[in-house]
Amino acid sequence: QLSLLMLRWKALTVDFHQWQARNPEVISTNPDVLLELGKEELQKVKNDLEMVLSTVRSKNKQLEEDLKREQQWYEEQKQMLETLNKMEEEANTEVEHPSTKRELNELKNKVLKLKTYKKELLSALGEFLDEHFPPPEEGENIKKKNSLAEPVVELITLQEILEMLINTLMTTPHEPYITINESFWPPYIELLLRYGMALRHPEDPNRMRLQAYHK
């Protein structure tokens, strides 16, 4: 439709130049007649221009819609490209370090097995100590109370002493000593020291540590 209007516009332009080249014939000298003829021509030109304007506006609207679709498509492609680049980086990282996750899982499994093994050892140790080294008799607590005239101090078992020594050595290997207090039964302390299971602190006899057999 726009092309047809342009052709019509060109035809009108040609007619205009032809009319300029000709000697116009005076249709009428009556002002009213000339006024009406002028109005008709202006109305035709107005109608033609309105048609051109409507066509241009319609074309602009279509171009705006096309532009919006192109922008949306561009944003979608851009986002897709960013996602693909991120996936490629992650894939490259996994290729560079393929065993990191596997090694971490293996390490976790080893730690879990060690904790289970430690628990089993402590349980077996507890059964052995309960059978061969029973807790101090209540008479020891009563005797201590009568001799010192002080409140009774609950004596701990040999298993509890060993667990304290083991846990201290494992958690703070740089400071493995524990402090000997009144809850430690002296025969148990002498037993551990005599058989080399524990060592006194070289400067403080009230502190001792587990013998580091693993070194």
UniProtKB/TrEMBL annotation:
Pfam families: CENP-K (PF11802). Residues 39-94 form a coiled coil. InterPro entries: Centromere_CenpK. One of its GO terms (cellular component) is chromosome, centromeric region. It is found in: Chromosome, Centromere; Nucleus. Keywords: Centromere, Chromosome, Coiled coil, Nucleus. One of its GO terms (biological process) is mitotic sister chromatid segregation. Its main location: nucleus. This is CENPK protein. It comes from Quiscalus mexicanus. The lineage of its organism: Eukaryota, Metazoa, Chordata, Craniata, Vertebrata.
